[in-house]
Amino acid sequence: MRQSYCYSDPCWDGLGRASGLASQVSMEGGGTDQYYRKSDAQDLWNTSFWGHMMKTHSGEVRESYTTASHSNHHDGTKKACGSGVHVRTFGGLEVSIDASPMKVSRKRPRMELNLLIALVARGPRGDSRRSLGLTLWPDAEEANATNACAITINRLRHRLGDSRALVALDGRVALRSDRVTIDAWEFCDACAILERACHTQDTLGELAASRVFELYKGEFAPDYDLPCALGARERYRLRFRRAVTQWGRLLKHQGRLVEAICHFENATEVCSLEESFYLDLMDCYAANGAVVAAMRTFENACALFRGAYGVEPSSILLAKYRGIRDRSDLGVAPRCGERLTPEELQSGGHGVSR
User: Fold this and answer.
1) Nearest residue to 274 (alpha-carbon basis) of 250, 249, 309, 247
2) Residue 135 lies in a domain
3) What pLDDT is recorded for position 94?
């Protein structure tokens, strides 16, 4: 029998999912046919963690942020207290089942994990067996790749310990977001809420910003070089940069300079090679009167870029440094490859003690 149900994807479109759109999908397996109404999909959103946060008035205490999680659904799925399947992709792939690491044999299940990464990268809507097969077996014939993908799907479903964690309909495959907790999809939720808070200046942004940093621990699946993983890696990086930058600049605009400095310092720790974070951090330091700290930030960035890529600071970063230096009354000596102009040589650009 093919078990059918109405599937909403409450972990991808962020703010757009409140409409309760759902589509019927099915899962191979035993049991009688069961159909869920679209209202059930709406209830799934209404009872979800981020849905509850968005519906909470901005002036109320957000106790639900620390106590709530994706709550129990109509099918008895439990994701609280570490139960269920949890997939962490940022900073390295980790899969846990009921709070215990996924058991693997001595031979690493490479193809099953590749399929898992591909499904996470595709999002809750999933992808076709044909596309997944060609992604995982690019050198195989289409029919062979599709058949191999079908076998790997069954193996992955078995390893996850939940036959309903993967769903299929008309050749398409997807992970069920109500049965599998995936950090990448929750990250998209948090970024959507944070970006909205930047426009509405809602205090909910503080909670969303904390959640973004909690989830984004590094690059998406850094050990996997699948084309879909590479694309998702860049997409998540840009999403992190945009959301974090918007919130940090809002803090600076509101005069909350200390919070903005801490915010961008955290950002540079997560993405140490993201130049834009150093630019904003230098701006915040300078606005707070900590010119020496801004100079030191420039020096640290230069040393990091040189050590990682063997390159000198960009013209934008150098111009920012010169602008801060020229607005201050400190004669700061150039460092990390910056050269003095003839006028600066004549005036003798002495540095400050650090």
Assistant:
1) 309
2) no
3) 92
